[in-house]
Amino acid sequence: MIVAGGQPPEIELINEYQQAGFHYIIAADRGAEFLMASGITFDLALGDFDSLPAKYREELEETHEILCYDAAKDFTDT
User: Does residue 9 carry a pLDDT above 50?
Assistant: First the structure.
């Protein structure tokens, strides 16, 4: 499952997917903020994280595998 920035999914939807066997969650860019704020564990974060608040960025760097892209390219912006 990939959770991106923009309108976040309902927590119930994420729970349904996990119960159906989708256990690998990718946080794409600002999706990391939503997942961390919601207390949802995820496996990988990718993006440029240019809009991610500092407190989440610090936590993300300490606790998750990250694929970080150059913010100037807007490659990962949704």
Answer: yes
